[in-house]
Amino acid sequence: MSEYFSLSDCDVIGFDLDHTLCRYHLKETSRLIYESFTRYLVEHKDYDKDLLILTPASWDFCFKGLVVDLEDGNLVKLAEDGTVLRATHGTNNLSTEEIIKHYGSKREWKNFDSLNTSFTKSTKYYFYDNYFDLPGALLCGRVVDMLRKVKICFFVLFACPSEDAGWYFPSVKRDPGRYLQPCSESVKTWLRSMKSAGKVLLLITSSHSDYCRLICDHILGKDWEELFDIIITNALKPGFFSLVPQQRPFRTLVNDVEESEGLPSLDKPGWYSQGNWPHLHQLLKTMTGKPEPKVVYFGDSMRSDMFPASTFGKWETVMIVEEMEGEGIPRCDAAKTNEAQAEPRGKKGKFEDQGMKAPSAPSEQWGSYFVDSHKSGEGDEESQKLTWCCHSIHKYSTMAIPSVESIADLPLNYKFPRFCPNKPCTTGYYPRPPDSLLRKFQSQSS
């Protein structure tokens, strides 16, 4: 395998939608998600109204990559080998001694092998993998603080409401500009240039068709459908990548309603719902005229995008890691300009004054998303370990970028260094590695 990766070598270029092509105003969206979850618990499940009260400091708890142990109410941050680096009970930190009491002298989390090899959901734990999840982690921790049942909270937080139920979807539909950042002109030009170069462009999202249309109308413009050869909504990833007998058939849509009869195969490009990777693969072979078309897929979720696409689809994968921007990688000019133009008036100052942490920023309570210090016990020397999330990026991604804007102005034949087992862990990040990884590599080299 080459040490470099180039989009010009790919026949098919695919994208997830949320937090990949579509960037959200994370602070505003997080507040809405938390409020939506909490109002449901308070109004329909008789939970304490104090759950609705948050201080700006509360948001420091929101951290991508945490795992909640549903059996004891602990949330844990894991190293690449399953070692518990940090833990809380509810939102309260556990000391080194308390961690050892819970997980033994080696600080081993007992369900790590199950999570690490399959990324599947479990009745014993839940992995907070994306920005939609993070307000749920905060709420789950606060529910444990109030000594309520974790499993009830878990069920409520992750049961999918219908598009028009509850508070979240109606709020976004009512005022999309408050929550969604339009794509920059450079990204739109980049998408058109790939299509002009003969690439097959693919959009795969687990969002339903009406929500997908709402988002894309706002971020890409009313003619956005012309950018993609194939659009797949309600894909229910990671199940989309399942093989026989679990795979779901593709369905056509009429006025955003799925036809009851599934399709035996895909014979032409278009807009479809649900579906599966093997049938898509057959269509891509027909469209490209190649027995094994080379596909690259951009996404932000390890569980739904990177792991299944690389493991089952054997696709190249580019992970969007916004946490890079919190560790020394400046936002590109197009992204900064676009965000400033999209920001509703008066909102930025309100958040700055309140001191609310962005969910992608480093956390005082949880540390870096990429690297953390580890001490086995009192008197032991402190060492730096890669987090499990960071290790997974290196294992299942071809490369990592903070946003699609960061590469949109580059030529399609630009050669990116890819993650390689025989290369330093800093290789594979563009435009450069996050600060914590650089420091770890430099300390090892000195």
Automatic annotation (TrEMBL):
Residues 336-364 are annotated as: Disordered. SUPFAM superfamilies: HAD-like. Keywords: Acetylation, Hydrolase, Magnesium, Metal-binding. Residues 336-355 have a biased composition (Basic and acidic residues). One of its GO terms (molecular function) is metal ion binding. The keyword Cytoplasm does not apply. The keyword Manganese does not apply. Belongs to the 5'(3')-deoxyribonucleotidase family. This is 5'-nucleotidase domain-containing protein 1. It comes from Oncorhynchus mykiss. The gene is LOC110522132.
